[in-house]
Design a protein that fits this description.
Helix content of chain B: 25-40%
Strand content of chain A: 5-15%
CATH superfamily of the largest domain in chain B: von Willebrand factor, type A domain
Number of helices of chain A: 20
Largest interface: A-B, 76 and 53 residues
Helix content of chain A: 40-55%
Mean pLDDT of chain B: 81
Strand order of the largest sheet of chain B: 8-7-6-9-10-11
Order of helices and strands of chain B: HHEEEHEHEEHEEHHEHEHEH
Shape of chain B: flat
Shape of chain A: globular
Oligomer: heterodimer
Chain lengths: 519, 365
């Protein structure tokens, strides 16, 4: 892609040596290709999310401008980028010191291991570089046929809806293969309760008039259920649009491209803390145990500390991840888990629990129980489940975590408390759905007029009204009939509508028709 | 290899320019721009370039932090970011544009023609350009790469080259030097002479208008000429030359005699700016309240007889003031109706600046 990206031979040798260490530690990764970039090139690659080829769109130009400015003014530096692909592609910054390269390489192997083994990544396309290039070609072809401007605007519209996916749906098969409809013997689709009875008693136990009444009401129900569209609330709004919106073939293809890429990137958002924590854990372990030379120690420490630095009010995912992983390792090495430990309320005993055991890292030839555990964590957890299961009051205390909130009077952020439950709740809230609101399609034929009705499932925070209205306008361009979103603002249910000409909002009361479902 | 990102980046810049163009009227009246005078780049907030999403609103301002602090203590700056929230909250995008780009947008939007410099490039400047190579020259100009290549080729051909210990030794015949050509490039210089009435009737509000107008005049002319000089003259009954700072700050009392400024301008031009070498622009800002009708007529005579033939343009911009008759503009119209180089405009509020600039520069002089 670039000239002069070949890896200097000494770094290639080091990479091989580090890979050897990583394999010995039982990290299991795809083959990894390293490329060396200048800071400028790094900004370019980063603007494309690490991919050499993306579909042409000005949004990448905007991102590039931001990154380039950041890099030029020294406000932020991208040390490394890894792409989840087989083989993994990694970009190194050419003006880094050799010790930085080693750290980054060690860090990257752990990322690759995570991509390969974490269950949330299991459904991602491992040939994404090719796929992205393929997307680029398709979009470019559409641009040639339909005009750059038109395609670009369409992409903009779809990008506004890009976060309306259901990251869990890749694990479900129920939508993909609708089974044959179950049919009963009597009237197709309708079954009536019939109690077992001898024939001469049947007329009394199952009176015919009751039977027919029930049948009618059942039939009505089925009829109603059939009218419901979609049959249940659907979180994958993009899929719904793909199937039901009036799009031309090429438009639908562009939408499928956007959707596919959104799903590809979703696990990275879901596992940021765990993934970065895991990579930091390993670069730290490998550097300090095997790789670091005496002359490199100071530089390594400085940069490692820089990566893990926290500033007040900001939580560093690297730091939180690595500390929690280490905590888990310690707890499982010393047996601080399970019924007996949880039931113990003598702080002194808890503090010294299992101190005599305390093996670390590897015990001759195999992993210690703590290691075993964190390998399991990296395979099965995402950020939410990771924190939900392993965050302990002791850890919160040790890490000096606190809960803060904006003071409505002064507008300043103030520390509220150091209460474990509050902190955990806040952390989980911030991570759930990666700070994206839950939006469902609840009616695709609202008021029987083909209008689209979305619903926001409120879980503590309101939608941004301005953004919601702007997004509705974009949605209208896809659906081409009036679109609504039901959202709770200041504890009042409000229906936002865009009918193609103007947007309106109204309080939801009995006068407003109900959609097919509510969430 | 040309990177794809360059295309995307250019598309983005184009969109940004389009947005600025749409909002140009608004930008023309932005006082913040004045703070950036003399800087090459200006950062401008551009609206609506953000992609909308369904997202959480501002009542979500809570989070988890790490470190010291008792309940009630203020968290450090930037406390509104949680993990994964790094991309949020960029509502308005600040984009950097160069002053030149901004002037270009101004030109496109106002449909201003390119200025035709007077006097057909009479001035030329000599410039050395290193474009060629030759066999002899000073060592400081040795072209290393070419020399190296020749030496390498010679050594390989003569079998002296040993790949295991690659040592290249230059000989005289290998050496190649850069050589230069002298090119003559036409140059057009321009001088802008700003004159302002600072009599008692010109208040701060009027000066602000002048300042904005002058900013855009400056921007447009700078785009059209390589070298620009600016001179500033203030006057009440007497005129004096001042520097830029003073020009926009000074506050005087007293009456107005506009002819004093015109005389000083004539002196300046005679002394420093030969009309053969310079494109000369004269701008006068006033509320038009001259002390006497006869002085106004004298101004016109001065212009007609001594100044106009040397000028590209005399621009008169009359700002509205609460006092004063504002009669000067009428006298100018009367006396100089047939002079092409004279252009007048009235600016009553900031919104008039847009049209005023257009009036001044539409003829493309």
């Amino acid at each position: 892609m670039f000239e002069h990206t070949a890896l200097p031979s000494e770094i290639a040798e080091q990479a091989e040596a580090i890979a050897e260490h990583a394999r010995r530690e039982e990290l299991d990764f795809y083959p990894t290709v390293f490329e060396m970039l200048t800071a400028e090139q790094m900004s370019q690659v980063a603007a494309y999310g690490g991919f050499p080829q993306r579909y042409p769109h000005w949004r990448f130009g905007m991102e590039y401008e931001r990154l380039r400015k950041q890099q030029r003014y020294g406000l932020g530096r991208i040390y490394e980028m890894v792409i989840n692909n087989d083989p993994c592609y990694t970009y190194l910054l050419n003006d880094n010191m050799s010790v930085d390269h080693k750290t980054v390489i060690a860090h990257v192997y752990a990322h690759c291991d995570f991509f390969k083994n974490n269950v949330w990544f299991s459904q991602t396309n491992r040939r994404m570089i090719d796929e992205m290039a393929n997307h680029a070609t398709r979009v470019r072809r559409y641009m040639e046929r339909h005009g750059v401007e038109r395609v670009e605007t369409l992409i903009e519209t779809f990008l506004a809806l890009e976060n309306l996916i259901d990251p869990h749906s890749v694990f479900m098969r129920r939508q993909a293969k609708p089974g044959p409809r179950e049919e009963s013997e009597e009237t197709p689709g309708v079954s009536v309760t019939r109690y077992p009875a001898k024939r001469y008693m049947d007329r009394y136990i199952n009176p015919p008039e009751d039977m027919s009444a029930e049948r009618t009401s059942r039939e009505e129900e089925t009829e109603q259920a059939k009218v419901k569209f979609p049959s249940e609330p659907q979180r994958d709004v993009l899929l719904f649009l793909l199937r039901h919106a009036p799009l031309e073939d090429w438009e639908a293809d562009v939408l499928s491209i956007i959707r596919e890429e959104a799903y590809y990137f979703a696990p990275q958002g879901q596992t940021k803390i765990l993934n970065e924590g895991w990579a930091s854990y390993w670069h730290s372990t490998m550097m300090t145990n095997y790789i670091l030379g005496a002359d490199e120690l100071i530089d390594y420490c400085e940069h490692h500390a820089g990566t893990l630095a926290t500033s007040p009010g900001r939580l560093n995912p690297y730091k939180l991840g690595i500390e929690l992983l280490r905590d888990i390792e310690r707890r499982w090495n010393t047996g601080r888990y399970g019924l007996e430990y949880d039931a113990c309320d003598d702080m002194e005993v808890r503090r010294n629990w299992g101190k005599d055991k305390a093996p670390n890292g590897r015990i001759v030839g195999r992993k210690s129980p703590g290691r075993e555990k964190i390998f399991q964590v990296r395979a099965l957890y995402n950020d939410v489940t990771f924190l939900d299961e392993f965050l302990t009051p002791e850890f919160v205390d040790e890490q000096d975590l606190y809960h803060y909130r904006q003071d409505p009077n002064t507008g300043r952020m103030v520390v509220v408390c150091r209460d474990f439950d509050k902190i955990k709740q806040q952390l989980l809230f911030m991570l759930t759905n990666h700070l994206q609101p839950y939006i469902y399609v609840v009616d695709g034929n609202y008021r029987n007029r083909g209008e689209l009705y979305l619903c926001h499932r409120h879980n503590g925070a309101d939608l941004d009204i301005k953004y919601a209205v702007a997004t509705l306008k974009e949605l209208f361009r896809v659906w081409k009939r009036p679109v609504h979103v039901n959202a709770r603002i200041d504890n009042e249910p409000i229906l936002f509508t865009f009918d193609g000409e103007q947007s309106s909002q109204q309080h939801i009361d009995d006068k407003i028709d109900e959609p097919a479902h509510l969430v | 290899m040309v990177l794809q990102i360059n295309n995307d980046h250019q598309r983005f810049r184009k969109i940004v320019k389009g947005r600025i163009r749409e909002d140009l009227r608004k930008f023309l009246t932005r006082e913040e721009l004045l703070g950036r005078e003399g800087k090459k780049y200006i950062s401008i907030p551009v609206r609506g370039i953000d992609l909308p999403h369904f997202r959480y609103g501002d009542n979500n301002d809570a989070g988890v932090g790490k470190g010291e602090g008792k309940p009630g203590d203020t968290v450090g700056e930037g406390g509104d970011q949680g993990p994964g929230g790094e991309q949020e909250g960029r509502h308005i995008l600040e984009v950097e544009v160069s002053l030149e780009e901004l002037a270009e947008i101004l030109g496109e939007e106002l449909e201003l023609p390119r200025i035709q410099p007077r006097g057909k490039h009479r001035i030329t400047a000599e410039k050395d350009r290193y474009t060629g190579i030759r066999q002899s020259g000073p060592e400081s100009l040795r072209h290393f790469k070419r020399t190296f290549r020749r030496a390498l080729r010679r050594q390989i051909m003569s079998g002296l080259y040993n790949p295991d210990s690659p040592r290249i030794i230059f000989e005289r015949q290998d050496k190649i030097y850069r050589s230069w050509k002298t090119v003559l490039s036409p140059q057009s210089n321009a001088v802008i002479i700003y004159m302002m009435d600072v009599s008692g009737s010109m208040g701060d509000e009027q000066k602000e208008l002048v300042r904005l107008e002058a900013f855009w005049i400056d921007a447009w002319l700078r785009k059209n000429y390589q070298g620009i000089e600016s001179r500033y003259i203030v006057h009440d009954v007497r005129a004096g030359e001042v520097d830029r700072e003073t020009f926009f700050r000074i506050r005087e009392d007293g009456g107005t005699r506009i002819s004093s400024a015109f005389r000083l301008a004539r002196e300046l031009i005679d002394k420093n700016y030969s009309p053969l070498d310079w494109n000369i622009y004269l701008f006068h800002f006033s509320d038009g309240d001259n002390s006497s009708e006869s002085d106004s007529r004298e101004c016109c005579t001065l212009l007609k007889e001594n100044l106009l033939e040397n000028l590209n343009m005399f621009g008169y911009c009359q700002v509205a003031s609460a006092y004063g008759s504002g009669n000067f503009i009428n006298v100018v119209h009367d006396q100089l109706s047939d002079a092409e180089a004279v252009i007048t405009s009235r600016v009553n509020t900031k919104d008039d600046i847009y049209d005023s600039i257009k009036t001044f520069f539409s003829p493309g002089r």
